[in-house]
Amino acid sequence: MQWTRYHIELAVHWLRVHRMTVDLADTDLHTIDLRGADLSRTNLSGANLRWADLRWANLRGANLREADLRWANLCWANLREADLRWANLREADLSRTNLSGANLREADLREANLCWADMCDADLCGANLCLADMCDADMMTDEALAKSPNREGTDAND
Questions:
Q1: pTM for this one?
Q2: pLDDT tier at 145 (50, 70, 90 boundaries)?
Q3: What is the DSSP string of 31-57?
Q4: Residue closest to 47 by CA, chosen among 31, 58, 61
Q5: Exposed, middle or buried: residue 142 (CB in 10 Å: 0-12, 13-18, 19+)?
Q6: pLDDT in tens, 48-63
Q7: Per residue in 96-130, pLDDT tens?
Q8: CA distance 63 to 22
Q9: Beta bridge mates, 73
Q10: Can you list the domains of the chain with their CATH numbers?
Q11: Dist CA 94 CA 86 (whole Å)
């Protein structure tokens, strides 16, 4: 079945009304338009979200572990406290995204746009930030940034 925005929103609403967990693990959602969708606390682990439009989406507390988010548009999205361990965010647009408290351990953020992103208290241990653009990002402390050993070529304008 080809998932559409309508199917996703209907399933999420129905499952929340019945107090059930929304589980979209390993689902192929590439190129889907989910602008402004409420996917908070949704299990999207291993999901294919390449080229997905997730601008203004609420993904607070979502499980995106090992999700493929290459080239995804996450501008202004809420990823506060989301689990993004081992997620592939290569060349994703995360500008102005709320990533505070997010778990980004071992995430691939190569060439990602993190301009003006809120990354306070985000766990970047082992994350690959090569060539990531972090201009004016509300970063964490220098100590937290130092925990990410893969930052060669990072553009972090203070």
A1: 0.83
A2: low
A3: T-B-TT-B-TT-B-TT-B-TT-B-TT-
A4: 31
A5: exposed
A6: 999 999 999 999 999 9
A7: 999 999 999 999 999 999 999 999 999 999 999 99
A8: 10
A9: 53, 93
A10: 1-158 (2.160.20.80)
A11: 16
